[in-house]
Amino acid sequence: MTVTTKKTPAKKKAAKKKLLKPTKKKVIRRLRCKLTDKEKLAAGNRMADARAEVGRLEADLTSVKKEMAAKIQEQDAIMTQASELVRTGFESRQVHCEFVLDYQKGVAKTLRMDTRKIIEKRDLTQEERQRKLDFEGTGK
Description:
The chain is an alpha+beta fold and 140 residues long. The protein has helices spanning 9-19, 37-88, 126-129, and strands at residues 97-102, 107-112, 118-123. It is built from 3 helices and 3 strands, in the order ααβββα. The N and C termini lie far apart (153 Å).
């Protein structure tokens, strides 16, 4: 046997309120807030500091760009010089040589000491043909 009880209107209203009770929870949202004068001043100071830092960084960037441009130019010069060596197959160097006045043959010649090859040969000039006398015995 089941007993059913009839709900009175007051009980129905109370039960309905219990089911429709609002739920609450704490949340954080980003909303607009009016700044105080102190906050505006602080933001202005941060802006001025950031502007000064940008100026310093731009100056550093200019300096670094000039430094890098100089290094690039230096490497370009090395490439140009090396490509010229490759293209021609030789370079000019300081080489020990010997200058010889051959009075018997009447020629002046210059020999490379590293290869002993004659690099220049010409007739003696009138002045070179005039040998100086060695009065002091120095052998020159």
